[in-house]
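Predict the structure of Xanthine dehydrogenase D subunit.
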Amino acid sequence: MTNEAATAQAAEAASAPEPLPHGLGASLPAADARAKTEGTFPYAADLWAEGLLWAAVLRSPHPHARILSIDTTHAREMPGVRAVVTHEDVSGSPLHGRGRADRPVFASEVVRHHGEPIAAVAADHPDTARMAAAAVIVEYEVLDPVIDPEQAFEAEPLHPDGNLIRHIPLRHGDPEAAGEIVVEGLYRIGRQDPAPIGAEAGLAVPRPDGGVELYLASTDPHTDRDTAAAAFGLEPERVKVVVTGVPGATADREDQGFQLPLGLLALRTGCPVKLAATREESFLGHVHRHPTLLRYRHHADAEGRLVKVEAQILLDAGAYADTSADALAAAVGFACGPYVVPNAFIEGWAVRTNNPPSGHVRGEGAMQVCAAYEAQMDKIAKKLGIDPAEVRLRNAMATGDVLPTGQTVTCPAPVAELLQAVRDFPLPPLPKDTPEEDWLLPGGPEGAGEPGAVRRGVGYGLGMVHMLGAEGADEVSTATVKVHDGVATVLCAAVETGQGFTTLARQIVQETLGIDEVHVAPVDTDQPPAGAACRGRHTWVSGGAVERAAKMVRTQLLQPLAHKFGMSTELLQITDGKITSYDGVLSTTVTEALDGKELWATAQCRPHPTEPLNEAGQGDAFVGMAFCAIRAVVDVDIEIGSVRVVELAVAQDVGRVLNPTQLAARIEAGVTQGVGIALTENLRTPRGLIRHPDLTGYALPTALDAPDIRIVRLVEERDVVAPFGAKAVSAVPVVTSPAAIASAVRAATGRPVNRLPIRPQAAVVTERS
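Done. Here is the predicted structure for Xanthine dehydrogenase D subunit.
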């Protein structure tokens, strides 16, 4: 080759486009990223249909009242109104609920919380619908609400099922065991709202067969379909849920009390009906994180090693059960944290009140107890005069240790390794005391803070969560992989909520089949169920189903070649779109091997079963666990109590990194959500009424509130029972970061900090404190 030809070839190679990321372990970009950033992604609020009507829901202004009468006459007579429905128009089951069917579609005799649906209206204009809903006359006998969960034990029953939803008494070890030192604490966790970026919206379209199609941002479409069919008095086959673009989900995304009136109105009018909730309606309608009261007593020896943990955990479920039983199981099961505790005695209760309903929010149960047990570890360290990180290291759990539920931790549990990683990471520099650095002060530019009043604190948090469902939940997902004309398509009812499942599914097929172009089909209930999009389920269960289906297609692809060359398919491998044999005799491309064939396979993934906790709180209730360590650095103005989170150093147990960029984004998002829990997010409900149900009164952290987040260590110790060995990554930083921030504020101020979010007065240091 001449020098000129070599130079030309080198120039051509240099100008060639970079190959796209491919397969597992690569940072494959999300397929919908461009549409979302350009604002062209179709969300439920963007839907339209010919002959569209608009819906509005009348909600109770009282947290507790007896309904004496409902008069819809004026609303029905308003021009443009096409239908008004109440409890009398529910032809099927009058009750629904995710965990337990105990919630009315429409209140009929009693309202049990502020915002409970009473009637719904369909009209030809959204303003008309809202005015008509306001014209429904409801006569109430206002009753005293039960708003204190401690009072619920003695109060008159708020529901036919009683006020106690679940009680778990956990007994583990010797009740007479005692330590040389004892620390106690009372802790309160506030009500966090998931506050989705996009409020609830949906479209219901009647079908010619008398059924209905619901276009929703559902995170569990088959459950929503079955609930709707039961309420409408229809067979499930006549109700179809089509999942639209989901504008983020850190909880049960869709309020079923919003979906059901929508479908009823479409069936009544025979027209498509759309409902786009206002922000206030969104706050009133969906579930929130359980406010929790926790009492703890820790016993430890003179070296700080735990001897016994005693705790009482009280979850405020609000008016209805929802998933409170599941949240309580997580709270009780993880009440001692990722520590070795030979003796534990925990009492857990979930009770009804007239507060807004609570339900599944990322890290439910585990987040509340983490804040409490980490505060207890700080107290032990202070009482013994040892480093807070050291006392945690002396008690850190490892693989093979036993939970207080009696379950052996068989998955990787590198807790000590995670804590050492964040402890040894260099601390951030101190802020400079100069005018141009005012923005570094708590309160930001133009804030009231004074540099001389600022104290820096360093704190730690160790958290753990369970993955998948618990206590015997049948976790299963089904997926189909099809290949035609060199293009692969994945059909799976796993909803993309921002957790990255559609990207992961593409990577799995690329890795297994060597096909670059992979599409994931839209989700609807014509596909087999895949379950809810929570607790990292879809990475494990749905990802596992996609992998199994792809491997079945791979066998179909390789079998003819293997037969031709007299070898087994195990001796062939697919790499970068090429099929080769172990001895190099066979070498061809996937495209050539396909040769116009159409291949497909369907597979299921079902993890190993679990069991319910018994009457002593014992049992193998959890499939797998994930762990996280966070070191928080905060600056606190001790005169006014303002807090600035300077840095959060994170080390996490991830099993295996499947998409580095996506994983880092999920961890950072979870940590930032925890900042909101720690400092600002508290949905206030005086006397059961939601105060300021808007994003002005409910303070979400913004980009200016987000601290520096340093992911200092990702431990890739694969869980052998999980597909790919990967673990869920989103929930455990949410669980851990509030506890770490509270620990840092305690270090800066010397104050106990026993409530989340942290109130300014809790961080003020006076001579007396």
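The chain is about 25% helix and 25% strand.
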